[in-house]
């Protein structure tokens, strides 16, 4: 990721923690919830790997292989989410997120986004970049997603009224934590898109 080192490592930690919680969610809930958690775990760990600051892993010949690996993993995740979208609208968000990861991997690769430098990945000082219109559209989408997810985390005015009789909910099945993870990944996606 092109950007400052400390925020990059904080982003790595946030995405890895989110991916780890999504792994916990794989153990509980319905089949559809487990599928969503699996897609979110892949996204969390993939975002953590992609957010590693460039100062720690400077671009080199290995970068082409990493870019191809990211594109393959997230392209496959997008196809899987598209297939699963038949059963729920949330999987469409996974399609957009996975395709955004493919886009960022290709744009952040040396020579990415610049047709004049295609095939010349070793130029020192060349900053990778994306297509401004596509980057802007993805930024708008994820900003809207973050706002809508954040509002669902706000406490409702009515409440349920039966706080004393509620059974404890396992950590892996808490809906507010799942929303918090989705919010965290949306914010991380915004932070990563800004650097494209």
Entry summary:
The protein has helices spanning 5-25, 31-50, 62-84, 90-108, 132-153, 175-194. The chain is mostly helical and 196 residues long.
List low-confidence stretches.
114-127
User: Strand count, sense and closure of the main sheet?
Assistant: none
Mean pLDDT: 80
User: What is the share of helical residues?
Assistant: 55-70%
State Rg. Answer: 18 Å
The number of helical segments is: 6
Count of the separate structural domains: 1
Strand content: under 5%
Question: Any chance you could write out the topology, listing elements then pairs?
Answer:
Elements: H1 5-25, H2 31-50, H3 62-84, H4 90-108, H5 132-153, H6 175-194
List the main descriptive attributes of the protein structure presented here.
mainly alpha; 0% strand
Polypeptide structure, described:
It is built from six helices and no strands. With 196 residues, it is mainly alpha-helical. It has one domain. α2 (31-50) runs antiparallel to α3 (62-84), α2 (31-50) runs parallel beside α4 (90-108) and α5 runs antiparallel to α6.
């Amino acid at each position: 990721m092109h950007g400052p080192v400390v925020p990059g490592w904080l982003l790595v930690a946030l995405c890895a923690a989110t991916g780890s919680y999504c792994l916990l969610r794989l153990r509980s809930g319905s089949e559809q919830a487990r599928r969503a958690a699996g897609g979110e775990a892949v996204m969390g760990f993939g975002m953590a790997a992609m957010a590693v600051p460039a100062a720690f892993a400077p671009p080199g010949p290995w970068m082409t292989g990493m870019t191809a690996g990211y594109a393959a993993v997230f392209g496959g995740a997008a196809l899987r989410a598209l297939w699963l979208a038949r059963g729920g609208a949330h999987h469409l968000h996974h399609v957009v997120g996975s395709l955004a990861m493919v886009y960022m991997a290709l744009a952040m690769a040396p020579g990415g986004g610049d047709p004049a430098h295609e095939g010349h990945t070793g130029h020192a000082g060349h900053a990778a970049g994306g297509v401004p219109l596509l980057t802007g559209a993805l930024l708008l989408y994820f900003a809207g997603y973050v706002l809508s997810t954040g509002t669902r985390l706000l406490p409702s005015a009515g409440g349920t009224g039966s706080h004393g009789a509620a059974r404890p909910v396992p950590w892996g099945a808490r809906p507010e934590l799942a929303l918090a993870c989705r919010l965290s990944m949306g914010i991380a996606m915004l932070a990563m898109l800004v650097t494209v």
